[in-house]
Specification:
- The longest helix has 12 residues.
- This protein has one domain: 2-Layer Sandwich (Dodecin subunit-like).
- By secondary structure, it is α+β, with helices and mostly antiparallel strands.
- β2 and β3 form a beta hairpin.
- The model has no long low-confidence stretch (mean pLDDT about 95).
- The protein is elongated and about 55 Å long.
Amino acid sequence: MMPGHIYKHIEVTGSSTIGTDDAISAAIAEATKTIKHLHWFEVIESRGHIEDGKVKHWQATIKVGFRLDH
């Protein structure tokens, strides 16, 4: 009997000077360099750096899920 898929998840944080979507994309792009079988992400936290009354930098922490090989 073959078992079902097993998944693991980790948190990663991306950063961007453009916006939160870009920070999320950066985090996913970097994670795919070392993690196989990425399937989903969930935004856990977003934050930014304010300078001279304007947002200058965004960070997004995401949870990514990937299937484990068996």
